[in-house]
User: What shape does this take?
Amino acid sequence: MTSLACQELHVSIAGISVCERLQLEFSPGQCWGLLGPNGIGKTTLLRCLAGLSAPQTGRVLLAGEEMEKLPRRTVARLLGMLQQHTVYVFDASVLETALTGRHPHLGYWEREGALDKQKARAALEAVDLGGFESRSVTGLSGGEARRLAFAAMLVQEPDILLLDEPTNHLDMRHQLRIMRQVEKQVGGTGRCAIAALHDVNLAARFCSHVLMLFGAGEWRAGPCRDLLNRENLGRLYQCDVDAIETATGPRFYPG
Amino acid sequence: MIPSNYKNVLLLLLLLLSAGSIFIAAATGSVTLDWHQWLSAMRDSASPHGELVWRLRLPRAMAAWAVGSMLAMSGCLMQVLLRNPLADPYVLGVSGGAAFATLLGMGFGLAAPFLPWLALLGALLSILIVFGLARGRGPWSGTRLLLTGVVTASGWAALISLVLSLSPDNSLRGMLFWLMGDLSYASLPLWALLVLVCVFVVIVGLARSLNVLAMGETTARLLGEPTQRLLWIVYLLASVLTATAVSIAGSVGFVGLIVPHLMRLIVGSDHRILIPAATLFGGLFLVLSDTLARTLLSPQQLPVGVITAMLGVPLFLLLLNRARLQGG
Assistant: This one.
């Protein structure tokens, strides 16, 4: 299984530093929560980790190779990203859209085979879109479009899953469903997920590690049990945070 | 949308209809041929009817078919490139450059056989200008290409107005016909046929990449497409198709907008089916339009662009209305 590593990574956007000297390895079997207040640069960091934009300095290594030197097709077979917004302009069916996840695995003239379609159907089932196969994507609700985009990423079968606010637009049931899928991908098949989240309790419930962005380039990373506490979260979000202990670990709420 | 099993049947049907439309175009006109006359004309190209069919009507029908299919293909590409289902092949100024060069040639009284070459030259010049300016130094962006193209197109429009206002009255009629798109003197040169076939093969090969690109540049990159390269390939192929079509028939409107749109409603957005369907239907549509243009007010011949616009505008409004109803 593939790992993703940052070496001395300095990322900034519009002159504001997102993280400085970020030295971190995202290993197989880990689920990372990326936490930080609005506009701190979570998306910018994820885009950099996906090789969509270049860092100021430092390097991102995918499977030990420098990201910028890898062809996009190779990257796409190893790494997938769920973007924050999903807008479908052209009319296509839900199944066709899920099948686009197979794109990096198919040759120039090759068509999707029975196995690819089976994978797409299974992924749609997994996000509760079974029976939607022939529906048009332009008629989907925000939450349904979101789940479809997630399903397309599952069909891509990447080892590294970058998720930009995966639970956006989703009701509570589907938030859990998506996060359980992430958990299953990471636990069952030894993949690695990095998810930007606004819900600290989803991170507390589903993530093994967190990366906190405090602004001005400051960051902290480590296992949830070490970092997820009232003091750190209070400092992260600049507000009072209280905690209660539950059967599945601590939960946090505004104090 | 029709079920995928029927899509190949539809392509076959469009192919047959295309052949049928060329047959109709060859048989109708000032002298309308019945079935027997047509058959004997086909067998004997030296007979008067044979002369009419082989030397006048068939070349014109073939040219119409090729121009229609190239414009439809180019429209499909432009719509993906600009990620806008309402983009057409002329939106980035290719036809403007061709029109300016051709009208200038007409104004100076250049002989008709040279005009297609001038049109091609003008179109290529416009492509280079937009390509150079939009590329700039920064990374590629669709918005920048669109703005550069649209502004270049309006620049050409201004120059065209200038040429029209300075031209003598006796050449104005020819110029206006050209601007509306006219197949009266059109024929299909071999190189244009080669462009059509080659670009078609390349695009059908790229069809799955186009599907991904239609979902947005970032999505396409995440799915493994080197998008910078792909976008420029799409732009250049679309421009070459438009330039070739315009050099043959002037700027025939609406084909590149209506045909991809209509086909999208019928076969969906998968470019592996959409491109062949639009190519066949575009050819068919323009052959029939041109036949109407020749016969509707005969002996008076209309520029085919008038017919495509008269068919295209109501059709488009109808589709738009339907889409709005479906969208709620």
In short: Chain B touches chain A through 28 residues (CB under 8 Å).
